[in-house]
Amino acid sequence: MDIVKLTQNLEKVIEKYSIDTSKVIDLSLEKSEKLAKRIAEINDENRLLKIGIIGRVKAGKSSLLNALFFDGEDILPKAATPMTAALTVLRYDTAPKAEIEFYDEDDLETIKTSASEYDKKFKDEYEKAFKNLQDIAQKKGQLIDKKDIEERAQRSAKRVLDENKTLCAYKEQQVMLENSNLSFSSLKESSQISADTMAELKEKLKDYVGADGKFTAWTKSVILYINNENLKNVEIIDTPGVNDPIVSREERTKEFLKGCDVVLIVSSAGQFMSNSDMDLLERISTKDGIREILVVASQTDNQLYGSEKEKSRGDFDLALQNIKTTLNSQKNTNLTNFSNSLNSFEKSVFNINEMLKSDLILTSSASYEIIKKFDNQAVWDENLKVVWANLNKHYGDYFSNKESALLNLDKLNGVKAIKSKFDGVKIKKDEILKQRKAEFEEVWHKNIKAFQNELIKVQENKIEKIKSTDINELNEKIKNMQTIKDKAISNADMAYESLIEEFGFNTKNRLFKQMDKFFNATEEKMDSSEGSRSYEVQVKRNWFIDLFSKKYETRYETTVRAGAVSSALNKFCNELSNMTELEYEKNIMDFKKSLTSKILEAIRFDSSVDEILDLDIIKLAIINIVKKVEFPTIEKEELPKNLRKSGELTGYSADRFLEEARDFVYDLQSSAKEKIKNAIGALTRDLKSQNIGKNIFAKYDEDINELKSNIENTKRSIEKFNQIIMELKNVDNA
After folding, report:
1. What are phi and psi of 213, to 5 degrees?
2. Using CA atoms, how far apart are residues 661 and 657, in angstroms rounded to an integer?
3. What does the pLDDT average to over 336-351?
């Protein structure tokens, strides 16, 4: 039977007879609404294939996706500049619309602070350069042209600051925000866009992603809903073409990519797998779930000429194969060199092996667009005309007639090869999710049946208790209990208090010891993320000596892959939180196990107690009271915004970033210990407030009086419990 229906049937019986489910120890029944929601989530994941795409600006990402999903139509918005590039997510809906996410107040504060830091550094570099140029002019006895020196000093300061891409990006973003003449409070009503047609939606989007768009400077991400059949089973994540220096925007991109089933790395065949592409690998540095990584060489049609044509002697198929072989070798060499440049810690967060194994796919969006518009050349743009003319000029025999031309354009565009990969991933994903759903339902079916059987057993035990208990003996026990009750409550409270103190002390000590071990290797890991690179500067002596020999001095500056360090620190925080949580929960479980036996031992202060009290009811009362205690969680550690960076940092920025990272790790240990102290302190205070002895005997009185009432109405009670048993057994057939 369907597990949701089975749960609903059980819930009806429980509600009908007001069954006390607390007597079912170590088992619980998930609410039917929650089960239904979880199954719906699995089914929804089974329906969607999530595709992420990364690549540099102008690598042809949008054109490729337009070819793959929109028959070459220009659907995806193209960024005007790297800084206006927004994360774009495409989903299916019956009517075209868009949801815009703007920068929030925290983002704006970070941008403003970083832009101010840029201004300060620029001023410092300008003043240094100005003084240096003045000194040189004075030494040479030259007339000082203040305006000329100011301009040269500004250019010098800009050259220095240009090396700090992060600060430059924040400065540029701040200028764009100021020039927009908008305020944060005015954005809310502009976050939803509706339109009657896709053309109308594209026109409205210009305000959000266009070069001169009213809201472009404020746009963080765009979710487009399009009425296109090709999107019905797909979600597309088209990422900005830079390793975004705007922290929150880059984090949003990485978060979306985590859930992808397929990731396309798109690199222009003319500058294939360059250093800029390597920087983008930080976005897929961790492996989350099922994933296929496809490396795609775009704009391949531009590589068919010159030396490649000579090498293949005009053989189009051989030329394509040679290009693929060359680029594949280039891919593997660059990835291997990149991997070799990493330290062991960074290698653990980059997924190089998957990309080395990945088959290279050659693509040409232009050739796909030519196929779609083959019979209507009047609508071709200049780029399509140039591509077609070159193909005919250099490989005329392969494009001399329509049939041959379409066949070879199809080989060149690579769309079928990519779609075939998508289909393969979809099949694998469907199989795994189908298995996951089956396993989920199987596990929960067992849990529900176990809960059902335990409820039946509780009713059977009640019948057995009614039949085996003499009413006179029970009345005598109730009377005698009053003589031992006060001492039993006092003993239970003392044992409980002692146990809590022991629990708090031991838990704190154990967690602190585990944490100290965990932090031992931290400094070494941090140091391994740091490197240095050398560069030569010319040392000026005098113009005459420099004519014959120039002296150079080697200097060094710190370098750090910020994304790798951020990933490592984030992973470190998660591992620390997980370790703390596991140890904390283990101590709680040990506490719960010892609690019942210790309190039971305290209550049984002499042999007569066993004859007076029903120890099974006492035991159940203790367990149910402890079950109601809220055990607070220990607050998780979070990576601060200033350490969520990507790309390579050098010089001052690298030194500062590493210093902040070390300070964070240093402070993290004391911060984590303080959170542990707070959680354990709150828990022990809550536990001490329970009045355990009084509550145990209040529950005991309640259960004993229920038993007495059932015995006094034996026939009716047994009939009632038999009726409950029958209905519980029949929930499968209801």
Report:
1. -65, 145
2. 6
3. 66
24 φ, ψ to 5°? -90, 100
Contacts of 301 (CB under 8 A, 6+ apart): 364, 366, 367, 387, 390, 391, 412
Neighbours of 258 (CB within 10 A): 15
d(CA 217, CA 219): 6
Q: Do 193 and 100 form a contact (C-beta atoms < 8 A)?
A: yes
Residue 197, classed as helix, strand or coil, is: coil
Q: Are 538 and 551 in contact (CB under 8 A)?
A: yes
How much is the average pLDDT of 716-723?
91
Share of the chain residues as helix, strand and coil, in percent rounded to the nearest 5: 70, 10, 20
Render the burial of 668-690: b for 16+ CB within 10 Å, e for the rest.
bbeebbebbeebbeebbeebeeb
Determine the Cα–Cα distance for residues 724 and 706; give it in Å rounded to an integer: 17
First to last CA, the chain: 10
User: Residues 249, 173: contact at Cβ < 8 Å?
Assistant: no
pLDDT bin (cut points 50, 70, 90) of residue 137 is: confident
Q: Centre a 10 Å sphere on the Cβ of residue 174 and count the other Cβ atoms it contains.
A: 20
Tens of pLDDT, residue by residue over 288-338, are 455 678 899 999 999 998 888 888 888 999 999 999 999 999 888 888 887
Confidence of residue 345 (pLDDT cuts 50, 70, 90): low
Give pTM, 2 decimals: 0.64
For residue 552, the model assigns a pLDDT of 45
Q: Are residues 243 and 647 in contact, defined by beta-carbon separation less than 8 angstroms?
A: yes
Residues 6+ apart with CB under 8 A from 607: none
Entry field: residues in the chain = 734
The CB density around residue 474, as the number of other CB atoms within 10 Å, is 16
Q: ∠ CA(242), CA(642), CA(128), 5° rounding? A: 85
Residues 363/418, Cβ–Cβ less than 8 Å: yes
